[in-house]
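Section 5.1 Outputs to date
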Amino acid sequence: MKTRTKINITWLGLAVMLFLSYKLAISNTIELHQELGALSKEEQIFKDIPKQISMYSGKKQYYDSLLTEMNVGNSSLENNLLRVLNSQIIQNNLKLIDFNKPHIFIDNDTELNTYTITMEGGFSNILKTVHSIEQRATFGEILHIEFFEQKDYKNNKEFLRATLLVQHIR
């Protein structure tokens, strides 16, 4: 055999040896290394679970305190709004004249509920009630307030009425 043929056979044998060593040993090692990386990430996630549980329980307590601060219970929005209105009306010496069913408008995926509320009393007391509805509770935004003064000719007295439009987006 010529020297050239021996060199070519050696190179071919070396290539076959490299291919077989990759297929039999190196590829398995690479797969096991990748699996080890994935398992170590899962292990880290499982180690963090107690921290996450304590963090989420803290968040739950915080959000529960916010809900109780904002006077929101477990019943419907309309019931909560009426409950807060009644407490504010008693506190501010007002009269609730009208509380209608919500006007519901659906546009694409958005549902707009608009509540019409009419109350009677003093100007500053009405403003205190409006402020508590919009700021301290999460019932939506006050779209419109209309104040009008009416006269009761039978008793010859004048009184102030306010009509509110409260809009809630679902």
